[in-house]
Amino acid sequence: MTTSSQGTASGRHQAAPAVLVLEDGRIFRGRAYGAAGVTFGEAVFSTGMTGYQETLTDPSYHRQVVVMTAPHVGNTGVNDEDPESGRIWVAGYVVRDPARVPSNWRSRRSLDEELRRQGVVGICGIDTRALTRHLRERGAMRVGIFSGNALPDEGTMLTEVRQAPEMAGADLAAEVATTESYVVPAIGEKRFTVAAVDLGIKGMTPHRMAERGIEVHVLPATATVEDVYAVAPDGVFFSNGPGDPATADHPVSVMRAVLERGTPLFGICFGNQILGRALGFGTYKLKYGHRGINQPVQDRTTGKVEVTAHNHGFAVDAPLDRVSDTPYGRAEVSHVCLNDDVVEGLQLLDRPAFSVQYHPEAAAGPHDAAYLFDRFVSLMEGQRA
Ligand SMILES: NC(=O)CC[C@H](N)C(=O)O
Fold this sequence. Notes:
By secondary structure, the chain is of the alpha/beta class. 23% of the residues lie in helices and 32% in strands. Strands 10, 11, 12, 13, 14, 15, 16, 17, 18, 19 and 20 form an eleven-stranded mixed sheet that branches. Helix 8 (249-261) crosses helix 9 (270-279). The longest helix has 14 residues, at 371-384. The protein is globular, with a radius of gyration of 21 Å. It starts with 16 loop residues before the first strand and ends with a helix. Residues 60, 240-243, 269-270, 311-314 line the site of glutamine.
């Protein structure tokens, strides 16, 4: 819910007051940033110092209010090339000190202007370190941002925050995914066809496949097994996406059919959680999640450590110390986060299927994990041999 925005001419120093209210009663007072109005979501923090356009437009952030730990945001403005989808998905945006003058050769407008244009309510001028420490200690929780010159009293705001929906149990993929299938053509010679189930896919993901000669058929979240096989795929991909993986019964059942047939399979983030569930593992909510572009992950199949991009609030509950027997053969944890031992990847030992909890498409983020797209290609090559 958003009301009319502040005029640019008034300048940020004159922006309306804004209040951020956490569900446990902690309150931060600052100034309106982006659109003025009211918004609710799950408060999460991202440690990425760059790549705010990619963060804002990542559909996995649907219903989340993102707190930027980097103190200055908006320095390079907003361009038309970096968005990961057609719109901003975050439910709200929290910045300590927005750039007053964006500067970059690609910049078309300021971030403040873009947030207002898309009706995204934000707050600035608050102590984002204190807020981040609070979330780290107490865990991700519901939050409201209220801005404008006539704000409700604190008790009313808190009641509204506590009435907002929780992230646990939220089934959101269909709210962000495409409703029509579309094709991302291979760049150069076409070598493979992949059916990509869109649960909130980022634009860079099909692009990384297209760069490897893959024609990607992006299908709606509601795609059936018949829809997947109608494109005669060499491989099937399950994307990232918002919400609680425990609600993803439909994609889990489609994935089980793919595993049954032995078609090469790759999953990213939500796709990794769906593979976990398809194999019979549980998923659980992390206390405050991983969001940023500098998370150390070890590939246990090679021993190599990579610096990676993350955006997840849930994780797979699978044993790190042994191979598990699943209905689809043996499975193991292939990748682990070195900060906290969270499962960051799964692979099957008897079928051509694997997934990672983080973002090898690297938008934004380091390119250390790009090899995973090559692994997917190798699985498809292996199937043909
Ligand atoms: N980026 C994603 O795919 C996120 C997956 C899931 N919604 C989570 O929060 O863990």
